[in-house]
Amino acid sequence: MIRSRIEHPIPPFFTEDSRVLILGSFPSVKTRESGFFYGHPQNRFWKVIAAVFGEAVPVTIPEKKAFLTRNRIALWDVIQSCDIIGSSDASIQNVIANDLSDILNRAPIKQIVVNGRTAERFYRKYTESRIQRTAIALPSTSPANAAWKLEDLIGEWKSVLSQ
Predict the structure, then answer these.
(1) Burial of 93 (C-beta count, 10 Å sphere; 0-12/13-18/19+)
(2) What is the pTM of this model?
(3) Exposure winner among 36, 62, 80, 109, fewest CB in 10 A?
């Protein structure tokens, strides 16, 4: 496969009431096609986050936005652009990180969470020292993280997000 230079096509989602910022690494091909975060049907993000907050799994983009707004969650990714092969996190090179200042200046973010090891690695490398804020790393909801069962993911995410 060919490595392509891709610009992040999805703007950050947040409101001026957002308290938690969840950052992924970079959107998969399916997510880029869907036009909103965690758009791959096999990604467990929406199942996990809905279970954490005791709500039905949102399906449409408007339902997902309403869910995030209700639960004061902001979503974005660490990477603004990179060279990548398909959706392979392992292939990511030549990273330019997203500037989080707009979110952090406009919303009272109390907690930053990174979804998976790739997001954690790039956050620590490109973002943490710039914004002087640590992030809590949670196990990836990606279907590639098959070692984690859904119930275990829910438990880990709940232990952090229900604080």
Answers:
(1) exposed
(2) 0.95
(3) 62
How far does Cα 56 stand from its chain's mean position? 19
Strand ranges inside 25-132, DSSP E: 73-77, 79-84, 93-97, 111-115
Edge to edge, the sheet with strand 136-138 lists 73-77, 20-24, 111-115, 136-138
**Tens digit of each residue's pLDDT (9 = 90 or more) over 52-96:** 999 999 999 999 999 999 999 999 999 999 999 988 888 999 999
User: Alpha-carbon distance 136 to 139, whole Å?
Assistant: 10
User: Residue ranges per domain, the chain?
Assistant: 4-154
Answer positive or negative: Cα dihedral of 113, 119, 124, 126.
negative
